[in-house]
Amino acid sequence: MSARLPVGGRLIDRNFPQRFTFNGRHMLGYSGDTLASALLANDQMLMGRSFKYHRPRGVVGSGAEEPNALLTIGTGPSTEPNQRATQTELFDGLTSRSQNHWPSLEFDIGILNNYAARLLPAGFYYKTFIHPRAAWKHVFEPIIRQSAGLGPAPQQRDGDVYEQAYAFCDVLVVGGGIAGLQAALSAATAGATVILLEQSPHWGGRAPVDGDVIDGNPAIDWINATVTALLAMPNATLRLRTGAVGVYDHGYILAAERLNDHAPSPDQPRQRLWRIRAGRTITAAGAIERGLSFAGNDIPGVMLASALRDYVVNYAVSAGDRTVIVTNNDDAYLTAIALHRAGLSVPAVIDARVDVTGDLPQQAGALGIRILAGRGVAKVKGSRRVTGVEVCLAAGEGTVLETIECDCIAMSGGHSPVVHLYSHCGGKVMWDEAASMFRPDTARPPTGADGAAMVLAAGASNGYLTAAEALPDAAAAGAKAAAEMGHKGQTAKTAKADARNDGAILPIWIMPQAASITARAKMWLDYQSDVKVSDVQLAAREGYESVEHTKRYTTLGMATDQGKLSNINGLAVLSQALHKDIPSVGTTTFRPPYTPVTFGTLAGEARGDIFQPLRRTPMHHLHEGQSAYFEPVGLWRRPYCFPRLGENHGQAVIREVKNTRTNVGLLDASTLGKIIVKGPDAGKFLDMLYTGVMSSLPIGKCRYGLMCNEQGFLSDDGVVARLSEDTFLCHTTSGGADRIHAWMEDWLQCEWWDWRVYTANVTEQYAQIAVVGPKARDVLQALGGMDVSKDALPFMGWSEGTLGGFPVRIYRISFSGELSYEIAVPAGHGAALWAALAQAGEGHGMMPYGTEALHVLRAEKGFIMIGDETDGTVIPQDLNLGWAISKKKPDYLGKRGQMRTYLASDTRWKLAGFETLDGSVVPDGAYIIADGVNANGQRNTQGRVTSTYFSPTLGRGIAMGLIAGGLTRLGDVVEFNTIAGGTVKARVIDPVFYDKEGAKQDV
Amino acid sequence: MSNPAPASALNGAAFTGYANIREIGPLGMITLRAAPDVAGLAAAITAATGCAIPQMRDIETAGDRRAAWMSPDEYLLIMPHADVPAALDAIAKALSGQHHLALDVSDARAVFAIDGMAQSVLAKLSPTDFAALGPKEMRRTRLAQVPAAFWVEGAPATVICFRSVAQYVFDLLSHAAKEGTQI
Q1: Is residue A367 included in any domain, yes or no?
Q2: What is the count of structural domains for chain A?
Q3: Which residue in A244, A669, A859, B131 has a CA-CA distance of 20 to 30 Å to A94?
Q4: Which residues in chain B have Cβ-Cβ distances shorter than 8 Å to A168?
Q5: Looking at residue A914, which CATH number applies to its domain?
Q6: Does A802 touch chain B if contact means CB atoms closer than 8 Å?
Q7: How far apart are CA B147 and CA A632, in angstroms?
Q8: Could you tell me the end-to-end alpha-carbon distance of chain A, in angstroms, rounded to an integer?
């Protein structure tokens, strides 16, 4: 039985009962409880099932190390699986469910795996699922995926909100135990800006539980005084419920703050991700107790000794009436003493050491607690709950000397400093033989940009496990970190804790040391993924020498707890099996996160409407009002078409194309890039950027140009307008605006820094509206204010003026082959001008059209589109655009590249038009097949489609594509492959399908 | 027809939280590119804004006009929207014959005021070390995923972003300013 004790519990408030449910059962806890302590108080020791064998599992720890008590918290949109009950604060109304069992926690069919354990050895998957190859995809993987993962993924969208925040400090201290508090105090007193983070809701760590005495008083007095002092310092920031999860280069630290996990409120952020830039980071994250490997060490009721006293002292919860302690060190005697003081029975302390001489064992002995020196555990009795323990010689083979009845076992195999954060960025650890632990190697720290250690370990994290050692170490770390950041102000007082005379730890990795194979197959190392001593030994026998390989082969330390309990024990067992010493086997790599972080926290505010920036043109809301169907174009949203009632998108596009060809269309072209290039050398600059000549462009005129990269590949295109003698306006593609502006600045700043040219990206300054179609001039004339006749404003000219009251610049450029005016107006007038044009066009059959009609119109006219006809491997010559390349210019970007043999070759695929013989539309991405097959047995190809549409104007499928031979193939009939199989026959024709002479655009 | 008034991106949208967010503007803005040592630069900036040439990362203020340093050869001049044409004329006059570029970019931007605990709002979105912010600094930075600039001059703080992402930035600021979430 586990139960609430009648008195005590320093963290709970019995005046505030909290109702909660576990697997639907109603339970009661107190404010201040963790879910684990509340479950134990309700005699709920069984909290889950293990992953592989579905063995019943109870809580083992009391903090971040917990491998077993992983529950699904919440329901519906607030469901969150795999939450450690030991770190989940209880709140009224909490709902929790255990995981990985069917049909119920108490009776689980998957336990059958347990009896088949001999058939599921280490590396089972690797050995079994190799042959036949085809079975992997269709049989094995689906089955494995079915049984993979502990908690079920939430079925609904996450209903909570999250946020992120940035912070900066000289010194970040991770861990609010006594070492962290002392380090923060020392650093802040010296004058450094300090942020102190503590993952739990309480300051002081485990010092109050362990009964430490600081400066002559109980530790809590010093803790409270130090927190008060730090809160009063303007240069110190303290955050509870905030766990650092990763340390990254340049002193960058991520920490997750649990804002409302303990008090859910729908509108408030549940968690906040802190992104901290720290000059120095001090990890004062403490140490984690290790278990011991004895047979049956996973039976519910076997717990870490430190956890057991946490439950008694912090929450007044006893895990059982009779607790046997199993240890190889003195620290576990604190648990014996704490239990005894709480009125609980400690039938024996089983101590593997023959010589037990420390202060604490003597205190325990004085209390009348029986100490069995040199003894070990042969076997734990019980199945779903501990019922007793069989005692043997620690150094023997497991002959049972006596059996002790008990319902709880507290084990301690020593402590491992939390070196994770020290190691994330490359800090190395060293094996401390005397203390049997890996501790930070201060000679090989993670270094920052200045070449000095950017992370310092302090206190238990640094291997100084007792308060008396930890406090001076932390004070030194705090002062050192502050001094390195240039703060050498006052020195804080270093607290002094009473020293304790501990006996030496005896490293014990298997208990008893010569245990039988049957016993070793019941010694759990990794509780969560069911890895036993026998599995690691098997891996060693099968030749796995590297700890990293053994980890992956056995899955040791690969579960959600990342082996916080199991890693050291596992690699020690491996080193014994390999007959090597522990440091030569080494540890696996410590990687972020230290504890799992929910995806929502990492995403922060970036979800829903603000998942990513959505760029809107000044007319966006008008398009929405017209039920436009939008498509993403970069981060822009552009109307794809404007469907009318009863129309599908295809029908809308056909209507929009036909109407633009016969009446007049209205296009939002605001996304088009607009870059001003000005200066005495602007013409010379553009002559280098474009393949054609721009310096000769007369003022008032427009010219189409191509831009290539240095390799010669076509990068962007657009119309350039000369605004004045030294000023040009360069239109780019919608997606190219930022890229081309950066490209220009790159050349001006890095290569041609002495050319006198300034550029400015004015894309968003202007709304741009294209009025396109035979009646376009009528519409503009209806608005009035400017002479838009052919004489005043001819094709490829521009003029400035006031149109219908709006200050505009009108370009006579056409991407459709029709009479076309592109009207630029300051963005603040965009919506009003659009509305005015729509009104003026009413009598002329004007309709807005979207990007798909735009594409069809340009394809009918044989105009190329960057991104369709180009893909980074296409040069202008491939697209028959040689006319836009100056032969006279000595140089332009890409010229040298285009002279290379491969690009100059006439065997390159070149642009042609295609019309299907049956009028159908060639599938997007189709290849033109050729005779024979290549070396891989694939069909040979001789070209591919680049643009393919149904042409409403011609009433048939048209396509542009690249084909070997290009326009020399006119008249040939070729075959395109199709997704469905089979081919489509098409004739090679000129790619200008409509108005080849260009008469319609020049009226 | 007379020249109609230009619209700001969000028509003056507002949000009330622990800090209040308000779209302001349209504000007149001129981007001025010129080398810092070009003759007439100080006269041009003073003529347009009444301000001195801003030093690196600074923004100078003269009444409702400002001049901000954007890069080693770029300045942002801020003024009432209607005053832009006159300012452009003044700049052209002062820098006549000198290599420079001055353009009206008023409509390319959206501007927000944050009344109240602006630092808490901005610290959630922008990797800015406020302790290192100069007394007259305009910080060019990002808000979540888009470029932005802001200056904090008592209250309110002023945020500038591109017009096309005005709604995104307004939503970001509102999310960060929600009642009860101040840092």
Answers
A1: yes
A2: 7
A3: A244
A4: 129, 131-132
A5: 2.40.30.110
A6: yes
A7: 20
A8: 95
Range of the domain at A222: 161-287+417-484
State whether residue B24 sits within 8 Å of chain A by CB. Answer: no
- Judged by CB atoms closer than 8 Å, whether chains meet at A168 and B26 is answered as no
Please state the length of chain B.
183
Residues A14 and A71 reside in one and the same domain: yes
Chain B, residues 78-137, CB within 8 A of chain A, namely 99-101, 103-109, 123-129, 131-132
Whether residue B127 is contained in a domain is answered as: yes
A893 assigned to some structural domain? no
Residue from the list B1, B129, B178 with its beta carbon closest to the beta carbon of A805: B1
Closest CA to A480 of A240, A166, A173: A173
Task: Count Cβ atoms below 10 Å from residue A799 Cβ, excluding itself.
Answer: 16
Amino acid A201: pLDDT: 97
**What are the beta bridge partners of residue A97?**
A72
> Range of B86's domain?
14-176
Same domain? A905 vs A1000: yes
CB pairs under 8 A between A and B: 130
Q: Give this complex's ipTM.
A: 0.97
Structure confidence at residue A116 as a pLDDT band (50, 70, 90) = low
Cβ contacts of A676 on chain B, cutoff 8 Å = 101, 103
Instruction: Please give the pLDDT value at position B2.
Output: 44
- Candidates A757, A758, A834, A839, partner chain B, best to mutate (most B CBs within 10 A): A758
Could you give the percent of chain A with pLDDT greater than 90? 89
- Helix (H) / strand (E) element for B93: namely helix B84-94
A683 vs A44: CA distance, rounded Å: 81
Confirm or reject contact between A804 and chain B (CB < 8 A).
yes
Q: Is residue B9 part of a domain?
A: no
Q: In terms of domains, do A639 and A770 share one?
A: yes
Number of domains in chain B: 1
User: Cα–Cα distances in Å, from A861 out to A819, A919, A926, A998?
Assistant: 13, 18, 21, 9
From A109-113, A623-627, A979-983, the region with the lowest mean pLDDT: A109-113
Structure confidence at residue A560 (pLDDT)? 86
- Shared-domain flag, residues A302 and A364: yes
Average pLDDT, chain A: 94
In a domain, B101, yes or no: yes
**Mind listing the pLDDT tens digit for each residue in A467-505?**
999 999 999 999 999 999 999 999 999 999 999 999 999
Asked if the structure places residue B91 within a domain, the reply is yes
Whether the pLDDT of residue B153 is over 80: the answer is no
- Same domain for A235 and A123: no
How far is residue A312's CA from residue A4's CA, in Å, rounded to a whole number? 9
- Contact between A423 and A429 (Cβ < 8 Å): yes
What CATH number does residue B78 fall under? 3.30.1360.120
* Residue A163 sits at the chain B interface (C-beta within 8 Å): yes
Is pLDDT of A785 > 50? Answer: yes
Domain-located, residue A148: no
Tokens standing for residue B27: 């504000």
Residue B175 DSSP SS3: helix
Contact of B139 with B57, CB cutoff 8 Å: yes
Q: What is the model's pLDDT at position A849?
A: 98
Assess whether A705 and A825 both reside in one domain.
no
Q: Does B11 touch chain A (CB under 8 A)?
A: no
List the single residue in A609, A760, A805 with the smallest CB-CB distance to B31.
A760
Residue A870 lies in a domain: no
